[in-house]
Amino acid sequence: MSETNPAATAPVTADAAPHRYTAAMAAEIEARWQDFWDAEGTYAAPNPKGDLAGDPELVARPKKFIMDMFPYPSGAGLHVGHPLGYIATDVFARFQRMTGHNVLHTLGFDAFGLPAEQYAVQTGTHPRASTEANMKNMVSQLRRLGLGHDKRRSFATIDPEYYKWTQWIFLQIFNSWYDDEAKRARPISELVAQFDSGERAVPGGGTWSALTEAERADLLGEYRLAYASDAPVNWCPGLGTVLANEEVTADGRSERGNFPVFKSKLRQWNMRITAYADRLLDDLDQLDWPEAIKLQQRNWIGRSEGARVDFPVDGERITVFTTRPDTLFGATYMVLAPEHPLVEKFTPAAWPEGTRDAWTGGHATPTEAVAAYRAQAASKSDVERQAEAKDKTGVFIGAYATNPVNGEQVPVFVADYVLMGYGTGAIMAVPAGDQRDFEFARAFELPIRCIVEPTDGRGTDPSTWESAFASYDAKIMNSSNDEVSLDGLGVVEAKERITEWLERTGAGAGTVNFRLRDWLFSRQRYWGEPFPIVYDEDGIAHPLPASMLPLELPEVEDYSPRTFDPDDADTKPETPLSRNEDWVHVTLDLGDGRGPRRYRRETNTMPNWAGSCWYELRYLDPHNSEQLVDPEIEQYWMGPREGLPHGGVDLYVGGAEHAVLHLLYARFWSKVLFDLGHVSSAEPFHKLFNQGMIQAYVYRDSRGIAVPAAEVEERDGAYFHGGEKVSRLLGKMGKSLKNAVTPDEICAEYGADTLRLYEMAMGPLDVSRPWDTRAVVGQFRLLQRLWRNVVDENTGRLSVADVAETDVDADTLRALHKAIDGVRQDLEGMRFNTAIAKVTELNNHLTKVGGPVPRPVAERLVLLVAPLAPHVAEELWRNLGHTSSVVHEDFPVADPAYVVDETVTCVVQIKGKVKARLEVSPSVSEEDLEKAALADEKVVAALGGAGIRKVIVRAPKLVNIVPA
Predict the structure, then answer these.
(1) Which of 408, 461, 842, 964 is within CB 3.0–4.6 Å of 819 for a Cys-Cys bond?
(2) Where are the alpha helices (DSSP H) in 63-181?
(3) pLDDT per residue as tens digits for the range 134-152
(4) 3-state secondary structure of 402
(5) For 303-514, which CATH class?
(6) Which CATH superfamily is domain 1-40+786-900 in?
C-alpha cells in the first residue's frame, strides 16, 4: 500500500462550519479515494500463479469468490434499483477482506443480445458501437458508487478473446457424448473407437468401416451433446427468429416484443441437457440456494417414474410413457401430439371403413384432416393447449394401434392437449382416470372402461359419471389377461406387477421420464457468437480447429434478420449472416489431411445465454490465451472443499427471475467441463442469494398515462400533477414509467456513501421495498454525526480524545463491543439493514455522551462503517493518523466481557400477572432467582400470606408463582 495521504489535499469549504460533511465535501472525498484505489490497485485479488499473481501473504489467506449476475449494458443507464445487489456484494466483499480473506470481486458485461441489435436496426448504429458506449456509461456510474472491483479481471462477452473460449467450449460439447453407464461425458473419439472395434454395435447391423461419411455423421449426431436436428421449434415471424421455451410467455407470445409464436419444424442446434437431468436434479441438494429456486429447477426438470409401453401399429410401434401402467387395461384410444414425426407415417390416404363422422373433422381424407388440425394447433401456445377448456379438439389419423395387454385395436388421434415436449409426445388415453381424456372420449364417442374401483359411491358404470375418477388408494379391477392379473391389487403392487409383465414380454419396461427438453441453441440473429462449424458439399458438419478461433463476426450492412407478418406461421427464418456471401462460402484447410476444401459456414448465432454459461471461469484467469483457465487457479478459487462438495463460487447474488434459464444452463456447461477434466468444480455457484427489488410509485392520469413522478404533489392524502388528480400504484422503476431515479442524482445531492447506506438500510436484502427519496436524508445525517464525532467542523482538526481503552467509561465500552458483536454477525449474515441500525445506535450513544470521543472507540467505529460507507471511512481513518487503506485493516472483534449485560430484568408473575421486576445477573441460578423473587417485598405483599403450590423459574428472565 502507498504511504500517500490523499486526505491532505482536501479543500476547505467556506461557510458557517467550513468543515461540515456536505454533499460537496462527499463528492470531493469520494472522487479522490476512487482515484487512489485505482492507482494503488487496492482491490486486486492475487492468483496463486500467472499474470495476476501477487502478494503471497494474501494468496495464503482463506479465499472468497463473490459474484454478481452479469449486467446487460442498457442504453438507458442505471436507476437506483440496479445497484442494490452490487452494493450488497461490495459490502460483503469488503467485510470479508477485513476478516482475513483474499477476495475476488469483479464485474463484466453480458453484451450480446437482442436489444443492441434492435437499436442497430432502428438507427444504423453498429451494435458494437452502441454496446461499448453503454458499457462506458455504466462503468462510470458504477465507479461513482465506490464498488471495490478488481478491474484487471473485467471483460465483455463481445470481446473476441472472450468468445473465442465460448466457441471452444461449444466444440468440447459438440465433440462429446454422454456415457449412460459411466454417468459422465466422454470425448466422441472414444465412441468412434467403440464402434470401430465392435465393442459397441452399429445400429441396424453392419460395421463402422462400411458406413459412408454421411452415415457416420448421422449416427454420431444421435449421441453428441451438441447436435443439429429437424425438430419442432418456437418460430416467431415478428422477430424473425426461433425462441427457447423459456423465452415464450404463458399466452404464446415472445417475451421480447410480444409477438405471436408458432410451432414450426426447422433444423436447429441443440444441447443435450436432458442427458444430465438426474445429476442436475440430485446435485441441487448439495447447493446453498433458496428453496424456492431449487423447487423451480426441480419442477422444470420434472422427474417422474413409470413405464414405457409399445403399442404396435402396422409392423411398427408407438411408444408412450405413463406414470400409471396399472391402468393399461383401461386405455381405449391413443393421442399423438400434432408435431409427432409418426403422424405422417401412420396417416393413410383414405379413411378406414366405418370411420365415424365425428372423428374426421369434416375432411374428405385423413391427410387433409391432419394438415388442417396441425395448422390450427401451431397457432396455440403450450399453455393454451393444456388449458382445461370445455371443448376438446382433435382428429382421427386413420390408423389403429394394438393395446399390448388385451389385443384391442384402439384408434389413434392427434389432439393439441398432448405436447411433443413431454414424455414421448404420445399418450395412451385412459378416460376413466383422467379428466382431459374423459372429456375427449365423451366428445368423440369413445369407450370409457372402469379399471379402478371408485371409493366415492359413484358406481362402476362410467356412462353414469360426470367426471373421471383417479385414486392411488383404490383397488384395480377389470384388468387381467391369460398371463397377468391386477384385479384386487393396490396401485403400487399393480404397477410393479404390470411393469414386470411388460419387461418379460418385451412390450415395455420400467423407466424414468423428465419434463426437461433439450436446449434449443440456435438464433437467427446477427449480434451473437458465430458457431465454429462449417458444412461440406454433402452437408456434413465439421468443427473448426482451435487454431482458427475466434471466428469473429463479420461486418455487415444489414443487421436485421428478415421479419415477417407476425401472424404468418408459414414463413421461415432468413439470418443476417446468410446475406454475406464472402463470409459464408470459404475455402479452408481444417487440418484433417484432406487439404483445402470449399465449405459453407453456419449462419445462425448462439443465444445470448451462451456467454453467461461460463463467465465465472474467465474472472479467474482473464488474460489466458492458451487455455480456458489454468487448472491450479481454478482449483484455488472454485475447487471442492469442506462444505462445498461440488466446488463453485462462494456467493452469487442476483434476481430470482433467472431461476431456470441462466442457472440451469450454466450448471449444465459446468458439468460437461468437469466431466472432460477441464475444471475441478462440477457446479458453478455454490451459494445463491436472490436480492429483492427496489420499487417506485407509478403515477397515472385519467387516461392511464404515466406522468413524471418528480412533478407530482401530495395534498391531503391525494396526488396531483399539473392540477389534475392522479392515481398512485407501487410498481417497477423504469424510464418508461417516468419514475426512475438515477444514482447520479442521489450522489450529487448527498454523496455515494449516503446512497449505499440508504439502499442497505431500506430493509432485508431479499425483500422488495419502495424507494423514497425523502428518506435518503436520514442516512446523510448519520454520516454527518459520524463526521462530527471524529472531526471538528470548525477547524477540520481531529477532535478525538487520545486516551487508553482502560480510561473509557464502562457504558461506552459496553455500547461499543455490543455494536461490534452485532455488526460482525449481521454483515456475515448479509443483514445489512440491522448492521446499520447498530452502527447508528452506537453513533447516537457517542453523540449523547458528548465530549471528545475516545480514540479506541472512534477508530473501531470507523472500521465498523468501512464496508458500508468506504469513502468517508477512508477519510476518517487518515484523519485518525493512519497511513494504510482501511480496506485491508482487521475488522474489530468484540470483547465477550462487554457483550453480556451486567444485569437483566426478571419479571415475577403471580397467577400470570406481573407483580415485580428484579434486576439480576444474567448468570443467576434458578435456585437463587427463586429465593430473590420470594423475598421481594412486592411479591410478599401480593401473596398476602397465602401458601405457594408451585414456582416456575426460567432464569434469568421469568419467575411464575402459583399460590396454593
Answers:
(1) 842
(2) 84-98, 114-123, 127-144, 160-174
(3) 999 999 999 999 999 999 9
(4) strand
(5) alpha beta
(6) Isoleucyl-tRNA Synthetase; Domain 1 (1.10.730.10)
